[in-house]
Amino acid sequence: MQGGNGGLRGPTAVPLGGSIRVEVGPNDASVEISTPSEGKAESYPVTPGKEAVIPVPDVPAGTVVVVTVGDGLRAHAILIEVVAPE
Amino acid sequence: MRLDRAVFLVAPPSRQPTMPTRRAVLGMGFAFTCGCAVGTACGYAAGRAADDLPADPPAEPPPADPVREPIVDAELAEMRRLAVSAPIEELMAQSNVFLALRNRQYPDDEILWMGVQRICDGILADENLANRRLNAMFVLQVIESNSPPPHLDFGRRIEALRRLR
User: Does residue A83 belong to the interface with chain B, where contact is any CB pair within 8 Å?
Assistant: First the structure.
């Protein structure tokens, strides 16, 4: 796990086809995920348990995706590597 | 009636008339008209002389300071400050957010690429950086999947970052 300074914690690597489970702080209703090559982000809701489950995007293994919570420069972000399934 | 002695009648003293008002007005009007004519002629001549002088070369524009350029978007202004003039520690503390925002919101802003360049240098310089390999992979993918300005040299940095993977 990584993060925690600002209410966003998640894994450092996830397998292709899986999902990313992140823990979110108390004041955020959604998280966003994006890849380095795409200019747009996809948003996913945060559950009442302050977790969000994000399907791993369809990207080549080795891609690093970024999950953010919050707006603008006040956001928090973690990087997650998508790896090939074992 | 017979007068035995001479009688002198005293007339009131004659008053010297002052300059007639009409003549005074005419004189002042003439002087004003002459003054206007002379003033106009002098002003016209001076203006023509100034026009005939070679024009000053246009002033050199001040060197561009990207951080101080007037821009409306406060977030972009702060991003540019981080990219160009913020201490490297401050930029590195927000590097993930900076890179993600740059990709999503400001992919065409050349100044922000200077921040990407500094982040590369920050990753390469700090061997104890948390998730250093992951950061190196991410910034490499940002560079390789976008089009950095050609005048910014990423070649040496890309090679060094690849060795961290």
Answer: no
